[in-house]
Amino acid sequence: MKLIQKRFLKGIREFEIVDDAINVRIRTLFNKEKSTVSLTTLNPEPVVNRQYLEFHGRGKNEPLVSLFLDNPSPEEFNAFVETLKQRVLEEYGASGGIDGSHPAGLGGNVHHEPPEGDTSVQIRLRGNAEFVNVARIEDAIRMLETYLAAEDIKPFLSALEALKAEPENEARLAQVVSAFNDLGPLQGAVLTYAPYISILLSDDPFQ
User: Going by CATH, does the domain composed of 2-107 fall within 3.30.70?
Assistant: First the structure.
Protein backbone atom coordinates (compact mmCIF):
# COMPACT_ATOMS: atom_id res chain seq x y z
CA MET A 1 0.00 0.00 0.00
CA LYS A 2 1.32 3.42 -0.93
CA LEU A 3 0.60 6.98 0.19
CA ILE A 4 1.94 10.05 -1.61
CA GLN A 5 1.74 13.40 0.14
CA LYS A 6 2.47 16.81 -1.35
CA ARG A 7 2.60 20.12 0.49
CA PHE A 8 3.69 23.53 -0.73
CA LEU A 9 7.21 24.38 0.44
CA LYS A 10 7.39 21.04 2.30
CA GLY A 11 8.00 18.88 -0.76
CA ILE A 12 6.77 15.37 -1.49
CA ARG A 13 6.62 12.44 0.91
CA GLU A 14 6.06 8.91 -0.34
CA PHE A 15 5.34 5.98 1.94
CA GLU A 16 5.00 2.38 0.79
CA ILE A 17 4.34 -0.66 2.96
CA VAL A 18 6.27 -3.59 1.50
CA ASP A 19 6.29 -6.92 3.35
CA ASP A 20 7.67 -6.27 6.86
CA ALA A 21 8.89 -2.72 6.26
CA ILE A 22 7.83 0.74 5.16
CA ASN A 23 9.84 2.56 2.51
CA VAL A 24 10.04 6.32 2.97
CA ARG A 25 11.07 8.81 0.28
CA ILE A 26 11.20 12.54 0.99
CA ARG A 27 11.91 15.06 -1.75
CA THR A 28 12.32 18.78 -1.18
CA LEU A 29 13.67 21.52 -3.41
CA PHE A 30 17.22 21.02 -2.17
CA ASN A 31 17.30 17.52 -0.77
CA LYS A 32 16.28 13.90 -1.27
CA GLU A 33 16.05 11.28 1.45
CA LYS A 34 15.32 7.58 1.25
CA SER A 35 15.00 5.12 4.11
CA THR A 36 13.47 1.79 5.05
CA VAL A 37 11.98 1.24 8.49
CA SER A 38 11.20 -2.21 9.87
CA LEU A 39 7.60 -2.45 11.04
CA THR A 40 8.67 -4.36 14.16
CA THR A 41 10.55 -1.28 15.42
CA LEU A 42 7.46 0.98 15.36
CA ASN A 43 5.00 1.74 18.12
CA PRO A 44 1.54 1.01 16.63
CA GLU A 45 -0.04 4.04 18.33
CA PRO A 46 0.92 7.23 16.45
CA VAL A 47 1.33 10.63 18.06
CA VAL A 48 -0.09 13.92 16.76
CA ASN A 49 2.54 16.66 16.64
CA ARG A 50 0.95 19.82 15.26
CA GLN A 51 0.68 19.25 11.47
CA TYR A 52 2.20 15.76 11.60
CA LEU A 53 1.17 12.26 12.64
CA GLU A 54 4.27 10.47 13.90
CA PHE A 55 5.05 6.80 14.47
CA HIS A 56 7.76 6.58 17.12
CA GLY A 57 10.17 3.75 17.71
CA ARG A 58 9.33 1.28 20.48
CA GLY A 59 10.84 2.62 23.68
CA LYS A 60 12.11 5.73 21.90
CA ASN A 61 10.68 9.22 22.08
CA GLU A 62 11.54 10.13 18.51
CA PRO A 63 9.60 9.74 15.25
CA LEU A 64 10.74 7.16 12.71
CA VAL A 65 7.85 7.82 10.31
CA SER A 66 6.25 11.26 10.04
CA LEU A 67 3.19 11.95 7.87
CA PHE A 68 1.37 15.17 7.01
CA LEU A 69 -2.05 15.12 8.70
CA ASP A 70 -5.05 14.38 6.44
CA ASN A 71 -2.95 14.53 3.27
CA PRO A 72 -3.77 14.00 0.39
CA SER A 73 -7.33 13.56 1.75
CA PRO A 74 -8.75 12.47 5.12
CA GLU A 75 -10.08 9.26 3.58
CA GLU A 76 -6.80 8.18 1.96
CA PHE A 77 -4.80 9.27 4.98
CA ASN A 78 -6.96 7.39 7.49
CA ALA A 79 -7.02 4.24 5.37
CA PHE A 80 -3.23 4.20 5.12
CA VAL A 81 -2.72 4.89 8.82
CA GLU A 82 -5.12 2.11 9.84
CA THR A 83 -3.37 -0.33 7.51
CA LEU A 84 0.04 0.66 8.82
CA LYS A 85 -1.05 0.28 12.45
CA GLN A 86 -2.45 -3.19 11.79
CA ARG A 87 0.65 -4.31 9.87
CA VAL A 88 2.88 -3.09 12.71
CA LEU A 89 0.86 -5.17 15.18
CA GLU A 90 0.97 -8.22 12.91
CA GLU A 91 4.72 -8.04 12.32
CA TYR A 92 5.51 -7.46 15.98
CA GLY A 93 3.33 -10.42 16.92
CA ALA A 94 5.02 -12.60 14.29
CA SER A 95 8.44 -11.69 15.69
CA GLY A 96 7.48 -12.96 19.14
CA GLY A 97 6.04 -9.78 20.60
CA ILE A 98 2.40 -8.94 21.24
CA ASP A 99 -0.49 -10.69 19.54
CA GLY A 100 -1.19 -8.78 16.36
CA SER A 101 -4.01 -11.01 15.15
CA HIS A 102 -6.91 -8.99 16.52
CA PRO A 103 -9.01 -7.32 13.81
CA ALA A 104 -8.83 -3.63 13.05
CA GLY A 105 -10.98 -1.27 11.07
CA LEU A 106 -14.73 -1.49 10.63
CA GLY A 107 -14.91 -5.25 10.97
CA GLY A 108 -13.35 -5.60 14.43
CA ASN A 109 -13.49 -4.18 17.89
CA VAL A 110 -12.20 -0.73 17.19
CA HIS A 111 -13.13 0.89 20.49
CA HIS A 112 -9.95 2.47 21.77
CA GLU A 113 -8.63 1.54 25.20
CA PRO A 114 -6.16 4.26 26.26
CA PRO A 115 -2.82 2.90 27.52
CA GLU A 116 -1.93 3.16 31.17
CA GLY A 117 -0.14 6.35 32.04
CA ASP A 118 -1.92 8.41 29.41
CA THR A 119 -1.88 12.06 30.42
CA SER A 120 -4.30 14.75 29.35
CA VAL A 121 -3.57 18.35 28.51
CA GLN A 122 -5.56 21.50 29.10
CA ILE A 123 -6.26 23.58 26.00
CA ARG A 124 -7.06 27.27 26.20
CA LEU A 125 -9.21 29.03 23.61
CA ARG A 126 -7.17 31.02 21.12
CA GLY A 127 -9.96 32.49 19.01
CA ASN A 128 -9.62 30.43 15.83
CA ALA A 129 -13.33 30.21 14.96
CA GLU A 130 -12.82 32.01 11.65
CA PHE A 131 -10.61 29.13 10.49
CA VAL A 132 -13.11 26.33 11.19
CA ASN A 133 -13.46 23.86 8.31
CA VAL A 134 -16.97 22.36 8.43
CA ALA A 135 -16.15 19.47 6.07
CA ARG A 136 -13.21 18.38 8.21
CA ILE A 137 -15.28 18.63 11.39
CA GLU A 138 -17.87 16.37 9.78
CA ASP A 139 -15.13 13.90 8.84
CA ALA A 140 -13.75 14.03 12.39
CA ILE A 141 -17.18 13.26 13.84
CA ARG A 142 -17.60 10.32 11.46
CA MET A 143 -14.20 8.88 12.36
CA LEU A 144 -14.78 9.24 16.10
CA GLU A 145 -18.20 7.59 15.88
CA THR A 146 -16.66 4.75 13.86
CA TYR A 147 -13.55 4.03 15.92
CA LEU A 148 -14.48 5.05 19.48
CA ALA A 149 -17.36 4.28 21.83
CA ALA A 150 -19.69 7.22 21.22
CA GLU A 151 -21.05 7.16 24.78
CA ASP A 152 -17.55 7.72 26.18
CA ILE A 153 -17.13 10.97 24.24
CA LYS A 154 -20.76 12.05 23.87
CA PRO A 155 -20.31 15.64 25.23
CA PHE A 156 -17.36 16.18 22.88
CA LEU A 157 -19.31 14.89 19.88
CA SER A 158 -22.22 17.16 20.80
CA ALA A 159 -19.87 20.13 20.99
CA LEU A 160 -18.46 19.29 17.55
CA GLU A 161 -21.96 19.01 16.09
CA ALA A 162 -22.84 22.43 17.52
CA LEU A 163 -19.66 23.96 16.07
CA LYS A 164 -20.40 22.37 12.69
CA ALA A 165 -23.81 24.05 12.72
CA GLU A 166 -22.35 27.43 13.73
CA PRO A 167 -18.71 27.43 12.57
CA GLU A 168 -18.20 31.17 13.08
CA ASN A 169 -19.52 31.17 16.65
CA GLU A 170 -16.65 31.61 19.13
CA ALA A 171 -18.84 30.26 21.93
CA ARG A 172 -19.24 26.96 20.06
CA LEU A 173 -15.47 26.68 19.67
CA ALA A 174 -15.10 27.39 23.39
CA GLN A 175 -17.48 24.50 24.08
CA VAL A 176 -15.32 22.19 21.96
CA VAL A 177 -12.22 23.25 23.91
CA SER A 178 -13.99 22.66 27.23
CA ALA A 179 -15.30 19.26 26.15
CA PHE A 180 -11.84 18.26 24.91
CA ASN A 181 -10.30 19.22 28.25
CA ASP A 182 -12.87 16.99 29.98
CA LEU A 183 -11.87 13.94 27.91
CA GLY A 184 -8.90 13.17 30.15
CA PRO A 185 -6.96 10.09 28.95
CA LEU A 186 -9.26 9.76 25.93
CA GLN A 187 -7.66 12.86 24.39
CA GLY A 188 -4.96 10.74 22.77
CA ALA A 189 -7.48 8.43 21.12
CA VAL A 190 -9.49 11.39 19.83
CA LEU A 191 -6.41 13.01 18.29
CA THR A 192 -5.34 9.71 16.73
CA TYR A 193 -8.62 9.09 14.92
CA ALA A 194 -9.50 12.75 14.27
CA PRO A 195 -6.21 14.59 13.65
CA TYR A 196 -8.04 17.74 12.52
CA ILE A 197 -8.92 18.39 16.16
CA SER A 198 -5.23 19.05 16.82
CA ILE A 199 -5.15 21.60 14.01
CA LEU A 200 -8.41 23.18 15.15
CA LEU A 201 -7.07 23.75 18.65
CA SER A 202 -3.49 24.64 17.68
CA ASP A 203 -1.81 28.02 18.00
CA ASP A 204 -1.53 28.36 14.23
CA PRO A 205 -4.21 26.51 12.21
CA PHE A 206 -2.36 27.26 8.96
CA GLN A 207 0.65 25.14 9.91
Answer: no
